[in-house]
Design a protein that fits this description.
Strands 2, 3, 4, 7, 8, 9, 10, 11, 12, 13 and 14 form an 11-stranded antiparallel β-sheet that branches. This protein is mainly β. The chain has a domain of 176 residues. The chain has 3 helices and 18 strands. It starts with 13 loop residues before the first strand and ends in an 8-residue tail after the last strand.
């Protein structure tokens, strides 16, 4: 896997399953003065109004599918899983943490670890184990090297009073202090600056993308666009969408970009593609990846008597 986000498919592939999607009504006119009203037919019950763009899967877990004006092809959708961190806990999963551990599809990572949802953690090196940048948990270091990349997903706080999860921006936050306050750190490429600007230059080439974001209320966003975008254009779309985006980081592109969700009686699996999302040879192809970020429900605490 290349260091730069111009995705090249990894050497191994497993064929699994792939993808998922939403509706409204009016009324009769009054008769003119001096005329006899026609017989009234029974009114049909109006369809319930949709609760905005979000579909509630479980308490604290919502899925949105948004049309993109800048997608190059495909379904032109950007899917966003919005997660309440007071109800769901983030987990980092590494094949390097197990003796003889090997890569898995995002679906396999989720099912093996009883997770509600999962997404790529970051790009990875040719050894099919190591992240390209800093990645660690309390009990395991996948890569100790802090690269030049400016975004670091931090969760598992080690003291009270900190956000449960945040994307630290090394350009405007004190990472030296903050890194000692969290048990899990995942470094990747920043997409949005501290003041809400798109930090990517326009570029050639469009592909599927997986990203992780945080909104202005502190909710976690798992973002997946199978429809190909340049990264600059995808960021423009994300900043326009009604998702209240605060910051985000790029975690994978091309065929390896995946999102899996199993909640609310539904199982959804979204795959990536390199160039042509309509190509039937890649429509249901899921690539094994060495590192994933997932969520699991936080058990309710028993009430005190």
């Amino acid at each position: 896997m290349q260091r730069h986000p111009i995705p090249i498919a990894a050497a191994i592939a497993f064929a699994v399953l792939g993808c998922g999607a939403s509706e409204q009504a009016a009324g009769p006119a009054a008769p003119a003065a001096g005329t006899t009203a026609p017989p009234q037919t029974p009114k049909q019950a109006a369809k319930p109004a949709a609760a905005g763009p979000w579909e509630r899967l479980e308490p604290g877990l919502e899925l949105g599918a948004f049309k993109s004006r800048l997608a190059a092809a495909g379904d032109r959708l950007v899917r966003v899983l919005r997660i309440d961190p007071s109800r769901y806990r983030l987990r980092l999963l590494n094949s390097s943490s197990e003796s003889g551990g090997r890569p898995h599809t995002v679906k396999d990572w989720a099912e093996r670890n009883h997770l509600t949802a999962a997404i790529n953690a970051s790009m990875y090196q040719a050894d099919m184990r190591s992240s390209v940048s800093l990645m660690l948990t309390r009990g395991h270091v996948n890569n100790p090297r802090l690269s030049k990349d400016k975004a670091v997903l931090a969760f598992d706080p080690l003291q009270d009073g900190l956000p449960v999860a945040q994307i630290i921006d090394r350009e405007c936050q004190d990472f030296t202090t903050l890194r000692a306050q969290y048990g899990t750190l995942v470094q990747s490429i920043r997409m949005v600056s501290c003041d809400g600007r798109n930090v990517w230059e326009p570029q050639q080439g469009a592909w599927s993308t997986a990203a992780i974001g945080i909104d202005k209320s502190g909710r976690i966003l798992f973002i997946h666009a199978r429809a190909p975008h340049t990264t600059h254009d995808l960021i423009e779309v994300l900043l326009e969408l009604p998702i209240d985006l605060k910051n985000a980081m790029y975690v994978e592109g091309g065929s390896e970009a995946q999102l899996f969700v199993k909640a609310g009686g539904r199982t959804l699996e979204f795959s990536g593609s390199l160039e042509d999302p309509e190509d039937p040879s890649t429509a249901r192809l899921m690539w094994p990846i060495p590192n994933a970020v997932g969520i699991e429900p936080i058990a309710a605490q028993p009430a005190r008597r």
